[in-house]
Design a protein that fits this description.
Distance between the termini: 41 Å
Strand content: 15-25%
Largest sheet: 3 strands, antiparallel
Radius of gyration: 17 Å
Strand order of the largest sheet: 3-6-5
Mean pLDDT: 84
Low-confidence stretches: 1-17
Order of helices and strands: EEHHHEHEEEEH
Length: 141
């Protein structure tokens, strides 16, 4: 993939403002990641590990989460972390860009991993989903 000089695949900026290159860079990253994860079972298994921790997202979003943060354990948008969970997103945290095609034109939206957040005194407790006796029947074949 050709990139303009001095431009990373994710964060193309000109004068401090995102450029159209950013959107095309994310789309290219999705294509590259899809090609890479289907190259062998190790890559596919690593992708499934990311998917298992971020199971509520559609495939395209899971692909983008894996491409940018394969170790992400629980992703949510800024409002979920701050309003619903009562947590804060750490200053300087880099969001995971997801391609949003629900509107008139494609745009980027961002989610943050729980590792990008911190708890406040009144935060809701965060417990990642795990398989236990109460929900084993839901995942058993």
């Amino acid at each position: 993939m050709e990139r303009p000089p001095g431009c990373s695949i994710i964060f193309c900026r000109k004068g401090g403002k995102p450029t159209p290159d950013k959107l095309s860079g994310i789309a290219a990253l999705a294509r590259e990641t899809l090609s890479r994860i289907t190259d062998g079972y190790e890559q596919w298994a690593a992708f499934l590990g990311t998917v298992s921790r971020n199971y509520k997202y559609p495939f395209a979003d899971q692909l983008m989460i894996h491409a940018q943060r394969p170790d992400a354990s629980a992703c949510a948008d800024y409002d979920v972390w701050t309003r619903r969970m009562g947590r804060y997103v750490r200053r300087g945290a880099k969001g995971i860009a997801l391609l949003d095609t629900s509107g008139d034109a494609p745009r980027l939206r961002y989610v943050f991993d729980v590792s990008d957040t911190g708890a406040r005194r009144n935060s809701r407790p965060f417990r990642p989903w795990t398989v236990n006796d109460g929900n084993l029947s839901e995942v058993r074949l």
